UniProtKB/TrEMBL annotation:
Ligase in keyword set: no
Protein name: TIGR04283 family arsenosugar biosynthesis glycosyltransferase
Keyword Nucleotide-binding (UniProt): no
Matching Pfam families: Glycos_transf_2 (PF00535)
């Protein structure tokens, strides 16, 4: 999958840190999506200092892996700076894209400035369907997207917004707010599927209440650096 910079239309940027458990499936999925695409797509992984075999697995694939600074916002900004595409898609390692996702993103960005997918949560808990419905509804109402929804944006708009703010939490919310001030997002109803591990690890209701509280405090002006310690 060797492309010259002039051939690349879409750059997909994936920050990783100790994600060896999900990377093989992600690599397979991305290869299929690249084959589906009629235009040039590059995949850029940015490692934040993994101590597992994440880098080795990616290095054995056709995709690029860069050693970047630690911290998801910094990793994504680092990847964007190295990207050749005029369109950018930021993808979490545990998020699966729908079929023809790259074509859908390119079509959306030909008329819009930025956007995101709807989301479903992977797992057996019936409550996951309710959580995902509220996430998608809230995003449409507020014009704010989360990283789990696969944020995509024109490179020019991303640069003009200053990229992801350099903060350890809520970087997706902060970028969304900056982009929303310019234009409402394109909200694709095609669903990405994100892992339910965060909810399963802490407990579903405990995680819901925690995220509501953190977002409320962030909205009230509490620095993300303070909130990050409560999230860990």
């Amino acid at each position: 999958m060797s492309l010259s910079d002039s051939d690349v239309v879409l750059s997909v940027i994936v920050p990783v840190l100790n994600e060896a458990g999900v990377i093989p499936e992600l690599l397979t999925e991305l290869m299929v999506l690249c084959e589906q695409s009629e235009v040039g797509v590059e995949i850029i992984f940015v490692d934040g200092g993994s101590s597992d075999n994440s880098v080795g697995l990616i290095a054995a694939s056709p995709f690029r892996v860069l050693a970047g600074p630690q911290g998801r916002a910094r990793q994504m900004n680092f990847g964007a700076a190295a990207a050749a595409g005029s369109y950018l898609l930021f993808l979490h390692a545990d998020t699966q894209l729908p079929d023809w996702a790259f074509s859908r993103v390119i079509t959306a960005l030909q008329s819009g400035l930025w956007g995101r997918f709807d989301v479903r949560i992977r797992g057996d808990a019936p409550m996951f369907k309710v959580i995902a419905w509220f996430m998608n509804w809230r995003s449409r109402l507020s014009g704010i997207a989360t990283g789990d929804q696969g944020i995509f944006v024109r490179e020019t708009a991303f640069i003009e917004a200053g990229g992801f703010p350099d903060q350890p939490l809520m970087e997706d919310i902060a970028l969304s707010a900056l982009l929303r001030d310019r234009e409402a997002p394109v909200c694709l109803r095609n669903k990405v599927e994100t892992s339910g591990r965060r909810w399963q690890k802490r407990g579903i209701w405990r995680t819901i209440l925690l995220m509501w509280r953190l977002r409320y405090l962030y909205w009230r002006g509490v620095p993300a650096e303070q909130l990050a310690s409560r999230y860990d």
